[in-house]
Structures
1.
Amino acid sequence: MSSGDLTILVAEDEESFIEALELGLTREGFGVEIARDGLEALEQFQKVRPDLILLDLMLPKMSGIDVCRTIRSTSQVPIIMVTAKSAEIDTVVGLEVGADDYVTKPYSMRELVARIRAVLRRHQGEETPATAGREKILKRGEVYLDPERHEVSVRNKLVKLPLKEFELLELLMNNAGKVLTRDVIIDRIWGAYYSGDTKTLDVHVKRLRSKIERDPSDPKLITTIRGLGYRFEDLKH
Ligand code: CA
């Protein structure tokens, strides 16, 4: 389904969460705006007029609870509170700050997106198709990549990958069996932010191999096509 032109304001101060949310929600077709503290959340709310706010409870400068109350005094925009500990949920619920729903960290992207859609659906009073069928889980040989959950597992073991390595693996797996030239990979993964150091790509491939290959010195999954680029082998499963 298309998320249309819906914009989500993410009020969050932890960079790792911001990065994952930006990627995950964009992938779902949402527009994403970021606020890194409570005051910025209020400013962004006025400026952006988002369709939904994902509001962390513990924010610098102004707490999520106060942000929620302030916004509620003028707007019925859907708000999902994000709490770090389950103990804080009681506070959010007990204070009746006017949030539509809440999620507890750590949450999966799948769970979060389901909550977002449910809240939007209730708010808009219209049916949207379920998220099922949208997930494009990639499975190639021993490697399994779930874009929604931002998870990779190899030989049934979860593997932690930094963002760029994850994106690189996803790109290669999406094009399994095809050679991707260095230029194409660099453009798609780094774009204008590429440092220009030609080693960057090779370093990422090397790190990726060390995490997914049985024998990184003799790679069978990501192969080097000399003088051209890399290919993820089109393994049957
Ligand atoms: Ca926080």
2.
Amino acid sequence: MNSLRIALPDDFHAHLRQGPPLRAYVARSAANFGRFLAMPNVVPPPVDGRFLADYGAALASAIAGSGRDARVLLSFKLVPGMGPEAVYRCAEAGAVAGKYYPAGATTHSSDGIAEPGQVSRELAAMQEAGLVLAVHGEDPAAPVLGRETAFLPVLDRVVAAYPRLRVVLEHLSGAEAVAAVLDWPDRVAATITAHHLAYTIDDLLGDRLDPSFYCKPLLKSAADRSALVGAACSGSPKFFFGSDSAPHPAAAKAAGAAGVYASPAAMPILAAVFEEAGALDRLEGFCSAAGARFYGLPEPRGELLLERREWVVPGELDGVVPLAAGRTLSWTAYRT
Ligand code: NCD
Ligand code: ZN
């Protein structure tokens, strides 16, 4: 197959940042995705309706400036002490999800949650309001390669305690997490990134240290990668695409920031992964259907054309070293 048209993909996990760089990051997302769920780890954090609405307006204005037809989906940051009223106000401001960051697990998460009991009233409010709980599933106290697995029992308790809460375990990285998601009821799903599907810890560390592959959760083993590919290509509605595109300029990367600027190359990389797995016919379900269904959104409008045409990923885009910089990818994506 030399070309493939799929319904326009959605990205259910994108860091679009704030301030001047936001416009370029939004334009880059809108080039390949019709909707993207904006992560709330900005400063100050969106923890009330007014601030969230302002952040949404900044993102919408950047979309308008990009000349693309796209829509941003909003999430608020779930923080201890915010209270149920703030949850309801975020829902009124258009939030579709609230994001659970274990305290200290990743970029701008020092105000996160030490244990779920700290946000029990807020979780109950999210369940009532029909909001999705989006979870960064890592226990920062565990050794770095075991952080995701160490968090699974915590999430298990949350899933059991709120029997109507819809939950998304974000950016799956390991085989144990895949198995856990399959075990949980249908109201628990997961996003998977292009980089966790295509690369392993050897891309990060195996030759020279390559910080453009450094993200939380870390890329893992070949066995973990194959479990993720199996899940993404299975056709199960529990697994859908979230890029976790997380741009950091060179200076921040040099200082050790975790995050991969994934949105520019994600779709060509996904096409190659699904092709290698003999599952190109399931790519559309993974990135253009399952997530929208889980979130209760209408079917996407528009199309993405994937062509088998080599594309050398530039060494720098928007002032950031993107995912797969300098590598030759076998597919090119065009929004039509
Ligand atoms: C993200 C970021 O930079 O905001 N970093 C990352 O490594 N994925 C935060 C996150 O999603 O963990
Ligand atoms: Zn993220």
